[in-house]
Every structure is written in C-alpha cells, then in structure tokens.
Amino acid sequence: MFVRDLWYFGCLSSELKPGQHLHRELLGQPVLFGRDHNGKAYALKDICPHRGILLSGGEAQQHNGETHVECPYHGWRFRTDGSCAAIPSLTAEQAKAMDLTKIRTRAFPVHEDQGLIWIYYAREEDADKPPAVEPPKLDIPEGEKPRLVVRDVFNCHVDHAVIGLMDPAHIPYIHRQWWWRSAKSVHEKEKKFGPVERGFTMLPHTPSKNSYLYRLLGEPQTEIRFQLPGLRTEYVQAGGKHFTGFTAVTPTNENSTAITIVVYWNHPLIHAIPNFLLKTGISIFVGQDRDAVNAQQVGLAYDPKLMLIHDADVQAKWYFALKRAWDKHRDTGEAFRNPVKPATLRWRS
After folding, report:
1. Would you kindly state where each structural domain of the chain is located, as residue ranges?
2. Which string of DSSP letters, residue by residue, matches 41-97?
3. Per residue in 8-45, pLDDT tens?
4. Where is the Rieske domain (predicted)?
C-alpha cells in the first residue's frame, strides 16, 4: 500500500516548542510528534498499549530530568524512546512484580534540519533496525529556514496525488490564470531528465517563457527533482540567488494525502512581494490540483482501466517503476537499481 523504509516529512520545527507534542496520521497509523524539555524532537506511535487511547491527548511532563508523555486515561507514562516509565495504579508490591521494560509503544527515528522534522517509517518487523538511508537534505544555503508554508489535503491515494502534481500536460487546463499560463501560450516543450538517488530530475534549464512569474526573475535556471517516497523540490537560481519550493506528498491513509509546500528564498525580488500575495498564489495553484484530483475520484470509483502515454506520462511511469524497484530491494536484499535512465521528453503544454 505504501513505501516503507524511507524518511517521510513529519512536521515543521516551528510547530513544536519544548514540552509540546502534536498528533498526525501517517501511512494509516497515528503518530505523536513531540519535543522534549531539552529541545530534542521525537516521535511515538500515538497509541497507549494499555487501552488504546491516543497518547497525544495527555501531557508531556518532566520527571527526574526526563520527558514523559502521560496517558490521559490512566496516567501511564512513556519515555521518548517508547518505554513505559510508570503505571500509577500499581501498589508498591505490584510494581515490584511488574516488568515495565516489556511495555512500550513504538518509537520512530527522527531527524531535524532546515526547519523540517523527518520520520523514518520502517516496516513493522524492522522497527528496531537503524534507518537504511540517510535523511533528505535540501540543496540550499546552510542555516536557511522556511519563509512560507502552504498546506492542503487531497482526498485520494498518495499515488494519484504524486502523479497529479508531476503531470505536465494538465497545466494549461487546470492552472489557467493570467499570472501563470493562458490557453494561447501552449507550445511544444523539450526537457532533459536524468536519475538521482531514488528518483529523477528535470535537469537545470531555462524555464518556459510562457510563465509570467519566471520572466520576472530575469534569466533563471530551474531544476525539478523528485525522490521517493513523495518529495518534489524545485530549485530556481537567478543572479546567484535562489527560490526553492519543497513539496512533501505524504499519505495520511489510503484515501487521504497531506500536501505540504515549504518555500525558502534569498532572492531580493521575492523579498519585495508581500508574503500573503505569494501564499495566496501558491494556495490557488495547489487548490486547483486538489479540486482536479478530488474530481477524478468520482470516475476512479468505477475502477476503470487507466492509460499512461509517452512522453507526458513518462514521469508517472518512472514513479511506479521506482516504487517497484525499492520494494524489490527491501524484500530481497539486492542492491537498489534506479530504473530511470537519461532521457529527453517532449510534450505540448
């Protein structure tokens, strides 16, 4: 159903202050993201193993220098590594007989960098093994933090969200507005692609002149990278400055996908644009994708046979091939082989 043994976007660093936690649903499972009282991020399965209530409904407390998450139902306390620290209802005699080391909720590896908190989601049987790959890292200047965030939810399986966002042929029909594209601006395009780690990239190129916003930046160079499990990053460079848009396409469950767009920049022209205008533009753009994908679900409910064609749908084909290759690698232990080969793709958009 979902790709495992990879790092997923969890939440923003700014969403968690010391001693705070929040609830997320990820890959069909509840996850508690927290920050201990010393400032270190952590993640736990958001289920109390006693009676199944969400731990995130309780408080994060300090006990002897440790952060404990207290269950709101019976007060059981769990350390940030998932181990049970206390069961208040036990008498002194019962506490001596109870082995608390056998009681725990699952703890996930987390990594915090560039204003993002990542969670490594392994298969259940590999939950205690160290991460198989390094956490993602954006190719932006050191120390940069998010300047703008846009969130949305697509009511679909993650696969339809991913290929919907990478689809180049829908742009003149779904994103038709004066500040981006118009029906009259459609023309033939040719882009070169190549493989990257667990993904592919549209190699650096001068972006299309039928985009008004790109023209404002002068003579920019753009590269668009995609990596499993659902990470899309657009790097725009102009005059030694950058505008970087990172999009995390994260499965909530099999019928819902969270879209998080995080934008970084140091380009002076972007500084001059009020944040609310930029956020409004991005929100409109992703909202149009959301509406299209949500409308698609009506037809998909009839389980039609679908088509992927050359060249406009090749990126979608690569996505499914990458998923198959990664699953084979994790199932068999064979080295991962990226199925993407250098290619030049052409389409009208």
Report:
1. 6-126, 148-348
2. EEEEES--TTT---GGGS-EEEETTEEEEEPTTT--EEETTSBEEE-TT--HHHHHH
3. 999 999 999 999 999 999 999 999 999 999 999 999 99
4. 8-119
Distance CA 330, CA 334 (A): 8
As assigned by CATH, the class of the 148-348 domain is alpha beta
pLDDT (tens digit, 9 = 90+) per residue, 326-342?
A: 999 999 999 999 999 99
What are the DSSP calls for 92-153, one per residue? HHHHHH--GGG-B--EE-EEEETTEEEEEE--GGGTTSPPSSPPP--SS-TT---SEEEEEE
**Backbone angles phi and psi of 167, in degrees to 5:** -70, 115
pTM of the model: 0.94
Q: Which residue has the tokens 């306390």?
A: 77
pLDDT, average across residues 50-62: 98
